[in-house]
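For the sake of transparency, this paper describes our internal protein records without simplification. An entry from our holdings is shown next, in its original layout:
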Amino acid sequence: MFESFDAMSGREAEARKEAVVAENVRRMDTEMMRLLNGESIGGNAGSVMVSGKEYPAAGANAMVERHTGKIVAFGNTLPPPKRETEAPIIFRVAFDRYREDGFFRITDVHPGSRRAATIPGTHRDDVLDGHAVDVLQRSIDRWNAEHEEDITQP
């Protein structure tokens, strides 16, 4: 069972958050990319604006732990969330056919259901606790930094 970030010392909590961020980024690089490469581009995910340019997007369904922000799984068909500990979310990811990896920026996160959780600025930020929101945002920021070579180039 996970010990609450609140119950940890500042250093201990920060080290644990960093470990979760590193694991999330690893999952994004492997499981999320594998999922996205089998998705249709544009479709339901539509398009997104990145640095003033419109790109098609794809969605990646994920299950996250509500209190840690740890990504538990990616997939089109995920098991129902464990009521108290997990929440489904959808990452919307921009695609550029001229880039080596294609997918290069997570632009936003949406709830995977009405009761799902999201990061601030999207639909519902009241289901994940503040630590989980922080960990997910750090994970997204790090993944984006590693995949955005130079988004100003054509």
